[in-house]
Write a structure and sequence with these properties.
The protein is an alpha/beta fold and 440 residues long. It contains 16 helices and 14 strands. Bound molecules: D-xylose and nickel (II) ion (2 copies).
Length: 440
């Protein structure tokens, strides 16, 4: 049964194409820097935004018109799986991601929830036998249900902690069953509202205990996917513990978890934390912690997670620059944690959103590869820091100096000459490279 009967398989038609249902820049087989676009970009569809959410916002009801709307309960869950695999096939994406509650409805007991999950997971597994689309990651939703009102692994109530553990245990079993590349932790309610009622130390210690137990259980069942933490500073909780990559890293280091986790970096979470997307990617990369990406974009005029499809070429370029410098994403991918606007409610909009995102990252990839090939930034940066390659600078980086020697040196060399950082020149160069790729 076809859910998207007006849409054929999306093909690459090139930049001159006027067909809205075609890729203009994303050509899965095109080789960039020795690998195909498909291998480098590893695109993934987010099940929740594309098949589960209906456009509800705090002021209004759902607006989305979906071909599976006529079903309910487990029939709806099954219809969504059918629609999802049709969508993956037509979009030709290698990966997808889901939360437990996206794929199957919660029952009135945990046992019933498990039963529902088992049925849908078996169905997904069956579809995966003949589909090229693999599971990039799954995760447990521990933020929507009222039981998680005061947190999950950082809950004030030990019964909630236990319930959360049961959900993640099941999630890891599902990850193993479906051969997930990664398993994600995003702690929407792991944080606090006010310190007046919060034992921050206990909450953080408990979060670490929870993660250690997850690591142990994955080992026990032989799940070898990569564990990922997805930082976000706020929303829904006022202050979230995994604020940004640097905060998450300090936490992982303090609790001896660093070897078991990497980060899943979301563009819109970066901007909510007051960083650029590329800043978060860079912090993760230089610490060997860049695992995967939630590819979306925020709105600079709005202070919340708007989860738009990424269309800002400047941002996709700088993101791909970090990803290429990282040697790729390894087991990670570019997951479109993105939703069509509430006003874009027709089923075809789901294709337009993904095509826009995939083309934008394809352009970013091509530009970033050219910037690297031509050493545009590398060379400028190497020259900028050249003073550390000889003389006193070399002694500093080799650890061969101290404050006595540096003072003696400074006393003899106190007429300092700095040179321009050339920000505007470099920005103009990036524009030039983007325009060159677009003109090809
Ligand atoms: C919410 C998060 C969430 C995670 C998965 O802001 O981005 O969707 O990616 O739980
Ligand atoms: Ni996300
Ligand atoms: Ni998000």
């Amino acid at each position: 049964m076809a859910y998207f009967e007006n849409v054929e398989k999306i093909q690459f038609e090139g930049p001159k194409s006027t067909n809205p249902l075609a890729f203009k820049y994303y050509n899965p087989d095109e080789v960039v820097g020795g690998k195909t676009m498909e291998e480098i970009l590893r695109f993934s569809v987010a099940y929740w935004h594309t098949f589960t959410m209906d456009g509800t916002d705090p002021f209004g009801q759902g607006t989305m018109i979906r071909p599976w709307d006529r079903f309910s309960g487990m029939d709806l869950a099954k219809a969504r799986v059918e629609a999802a695999f049709e969508f993956f096939e037509k979009l030709n994406v290698p990966f997808f991601c889901f939360h437990d509650v996206d794929i199957a409805p919660e029952g009135s007991t945990l046992r019933e929830t498990y039963k529902n999950l088992d049925e849908i997971v078996a169905m997904i597994k069956d579809y995966m036998k003949t589909s090229k689309t693999k599971l990039l990651w799954n995760t447990a939703n521990m933020f929507s249900h009222p039981r998680f009102v005061h947190g999950a692994a950082t809950a004030v109530n030990a019964d909630v902690f236990a319930y959360a553990a049961a959900k993640v245990k099941k999630g890891l079993e599902i990850a193993k069953e479906l051969n997930a590349e990664n398993y994600v932790f995003w702690g929407g309610r792991e944080g606090y509202e006010t310190l007046l009622n919060t034992d921050m130390k206990l909450e953080l210690d408990n979060l670490a205990r929870f993660f250690h137990m997850a690591v142990d259980y994955a080992k026990e069942i032989g799940f070898t996917g990569q564990f990922l933490i997805e930082p976000k500073p706020k929303e829904p909780t006022k202050h979230q513990y995994d604020f940004d990559v640097a905060t998450g890293l300090a936490f992982l280091q303090k609790y001896d978890l660093q070897d078991y986790f990497k980060f899943n970096i979301e563009a819109n979470h970066a901007t909510l934390a007051g960083h650029t997307f590329e800043h978060e990617l860079r912090v993760a990369r230089i610490n060997g912690m860049l695992g995967s990406v939630d590819a979306n974009q925020g709105d600079p005029l709005l202070g919340w997670d708007t989860d738009e499809f990424p269309t800002d070429l400047y941002s996709t370029t700088l993101a791909m620059y970090e990803i290429l410098q990282n040697g790729g994403l390894g087991r990670g991918g570019l997951n479109f944690d993105a939703k069509v606007r509430r006003g874009s409610f027709e089923p075809e909009d789901l294709f337009y959103g993904h095509i826009a995102g995939m083309d934008s990252f394809a352009i970013g990839l091509k530009v970033a590869q050219k910037l690297i090939d031509d050493k545009v930034l590398d060379q400028f940066i190497a020259e900028r820091y050249e003073s550390y390659t000889y003389g006193i600078g070399k002694e500093i980086v080799e650890g061969k100096t101290d404050f006595h020697k540096l003072e003696a040196y400074a006393l003899e060399n106190d007429q300092i000459k700095n040179v321009s950082g050339r920000t505007e020149l470099l920005k103009a160069k990036i524009n030039q490279y983007i325009l060159t790729v677009l003109a090809e």
